[in-house]
Each structure stands twice: as structure tokens, then as C-alpha cells.
Amino acid sequence: MPDTIFHKIMRREIPADIVFEDDHVIAFRDIAPQAPVHVLFVPKRDFATLNDVPASEPEIIGRLAVAAAAWAKAQGFDEDGYRVVMNCNGDGGQTVFQIHLHLLAGAPLGRFGT
Ligand code: 5GP
């Protein structure tokens, strides 16, 4: 059974600033924010990387994106904008092997990669 730091957060074994939760997704603030607002949206099912999500279950990713967009809108970031990104494996910069969508907001972020 996979056991990452995010699983410990989901099990409430370590603290986190949880900002959203439903039956499928949990979201909490990143411990090392890369923007004024940096929240991680994590599925409650176990997938180490984006590579592991079956093509038959696109809703796993869809739910993360929809939850992030709804939360961003509720916080008033929808008009100014925000960034969502998912890192995959080493070249993608992934460090926690339970998939998660980063939501970055609260300041102009510039063009990606610049
Ligand atoms: P990745 O590099 O895998 O795409 O993103 C993992 C993220 O998890 C990083 O942005 C990192 O700061 C965050 N992170 C790592 N450990 C913890 C933790 O214990 N609590 C929280 N809230 N975030 C964490």
C-alpha cells in the first residue's frame, strides 16, 4: 500500500492546512509555497504518478481540475487567473509519489518556464 506524506495528511496523522475536501479529493496548502497561494489537490485513490491513471478513469484528473477551479473561483482568483500544474517523475520535478495538482495564485506568475 502506498504511503506518502500526503497519505499521512489524509489520515490526519500529520497536520496540514486543509482548505477543501469531498468524497474524492482533498486539498491543502503547500508547506513550501511557490506563490502567495499554493494549494495541492490530491485524489483519495492511490496513483503514484499521472502515468498510473487508467485511460478508462479520466474523472480522477477531472475531479482535481474541477475542484481546483471551483476553489480558485470561490477565493476570487478566477478573473485575475492562476496556474495549475502536475509534475510527473524525475524530469517533471515530482517529489511526492501520490498524484496531486498544484494550484498557484495570488500574483502574476509570468509565462511558464520564463
Ligand atoms: P511535487 O514536487 O511532487 O510536484 O510536489 C510536492 C509538493 O509537496 C511540494 O511543493 C512540497 O513543498 C509539498 N510538500 C512536501 N511535504 C509536505 C508536507 O509535509 N506538507 C505539505 N502541506 N506539503 C508538503
UniProtKB/TrEMBL annotation:
Entries under InterPro entries matching the protein: Histidine_triad_CS (IPR019808), Histidine_triad_HIT (IPR001310), HIT-like (IPR011146), HIT-like_sf (IPR036265)
Residue positions of the active site: H100
Highest taxon, organism lineage: Bacteria
HIT domain residues: 5-114
Entry GO MF terms: catalytic activity
Protein name in UniProt: Histidine triad nucleotide-binding protein
